[in-house]
Amino acid sequence: MSTTSTPQAASADATEHPRLPDGADERFTGFGVLGLAFRDGDCLALRVMTRTSIGPGYRAIWHRTPEGAWHMFVTTDPVYSCPRYFSTAATFERVPEIDLSWTDPGRLRVRIPGVLDWDLRLRATPATRTMSALGSSLPAAARSSDPLLRAMGPMARPILRTGRMRMAGAAPNRQRFQVVPTRLWRVAASTASIHGRDLGPIGALDRQSRLGDFWMPQHGLFYIGDARFSAFDPAEHAAVGVPADGRPEDARPR
What's the distance, Cα to Cα, between the start and end of the chain in Å? Predict the structure, then answer.
């Protein structure tokens, strides 16, 4: 058995030995939850960036309310973390800490003291093993190929039952992104509360949620992997800020 065959071990390896991909763009490596939907309309995501090309590593929680409003909690300057790419579709705040604790190799507890308590049970499935084998075998050139990554999203959809997926596209602040999960596990069970409100059972949303071209999976996935974004250009990309109308992109009229 590989020493990184469990989510806990793979996350420890990504933390202790972060391998940032080569390139001149803005690059990230780490692990987290791509997205997890709750039947009543909430959605959560976790980003643990163990190394980046633009600043220190950081942790982030993304939360979507049933009304469609997105908010991000980040542990470092928003200019060097997720709001750099998503702030036109989400409000954000910096928090002192986001705590992670593994209670067994497949069970993770995520906490923002006084704000969030999130428990996740993770497991490998034939589908996640198939996609992990594909993602981990991609050569470096393939991991930065838009045509290949665009093809992988529709391929993963029926295998993982995620709903729509895009591994390359545009973030709300207009930077191009590429996401390459190299290991995946299914979120088999989860409970969460935020500001004391129980989010209820997990399950697919009536309308799949997205931030720009990044679609949140309808069934939760824990990942190890890399991400790339266009280098910031003030003439082309939106600077860190809040939505002008206070509503996230997936709640705006289409």
Answer: 48
